């Protein structure tokens, strides 16, 4: 491997472009003797002449021409890298990998990402759908830059040792069922009402079903049966046909509930949620700018029942 440094490449480039040692030294802000020393040092390291003098002018040798070609590539790339680093520091360039713990948020997230990219064309925002089931894990290992997660509204997420939680909106979970269901006459439901019921939910691992794991099991109110479905539309259709009950975000399904279905509030702290855009504790400028933009855009979304942007 050649034992040369960046200064050697700068010297070759300056001499070739300026055409003389004097002007090259001025361009590099060094003395002519220092410039000559760099040339001699370089030629000693590579064991070949880089310049030759003909008729009082300096010309690149065959070796010098080859080094000049490489010097132009390296110096150009380093200059480009410097500009890109400054752009990244200023939040104007780079890639943001984002995911969310809930597929339903993809109904509005792509719109925000598209608008952000239109305003910041040098920033690429990628949705990592493979990280949906454990976004904080992927955030911690560096796969994600931003994660969208929810926590019970009464749970404070300030001063977390690993992550920075920025609240963006609040929503409410409701229980939906057919009007033919026996529970439909109730005004409000409690966790105990889920006993012996059939719960229709999204197709996630049992341990990732927060309603069952964090609410119903601790209350000894597990449903008799659980039916897993991949799509919101399928869940609503099965509820409409009275195959069971479901718990979903009010803002998501309020406009889709038919006349023969009903929504009931769930009396539990779990039903009120705050959604956060989460990063590691030390945010870079790109993350800060995207989160600020997303919060502003969420406040501008049309008003929807059960959806409250954080001001």
Describe the fold and architecture.
With 311 residues, this protein is of the alpha/beta class. The protein has 3 domains: 6-89, Winged helix-like DNA-binding domain superfamily/Winged helix DNA-binding domain (Arc Repressor Mutant, subunit A); 94-148 and 278-309, Periplasmic binding protein-like II (D-Maltodextrin-Binding Protein, domain 2, 3-Layer(aba) Sandwich); 170-271, Periplasmic binding protein-like II (D-Maltodextrin-Binding Protein, domain 2). The protein is built from 10 helices and 12 strands. The chain has helices at 6-18, 21-28, 32-46, 62-89, 109-119, 135-140, 210-216, 232-240, 250-253, 285-299; strands at 51-54, 57-60, 94-100, 123-127, 146-152, 163-178, 198-202, 225-229, 246-249, 261-265, 272-280, 307-309. Strands 3, 4, 5, 6, 9, 10, 11 and 12 form an 8-stranded mixed sheet that branches. Strands 1-2 form a two-stranded antiparallel ribbon. The model has no long low-confidence stretch (mean pLDDT 87).
Concise summary:
It contains 10 helices and 12 strands. It is an alpha/beta fold.
Helices and strands in order:
Blueprint: H1 6-18, H2 21-28, H3 32-46, E1 51-54, E2 57-60, H4 62-89, E3 94-100, H5 109-119, E4 123-127, H6 135-140, E5 146-152, E6 163-178, E7 198-202, H7 210-216, E8 225-229, H8 232-240, E9 246-249, H9 250-253, E10 261-265, E11 272-280, H10 285-299, E12 307-309
Parallel strand pairs: 3-4, 3-5, 7-8
Antiparallel strand pairs: 1-2, 5-11, 6-9, 6-10, 6-11, 6-12
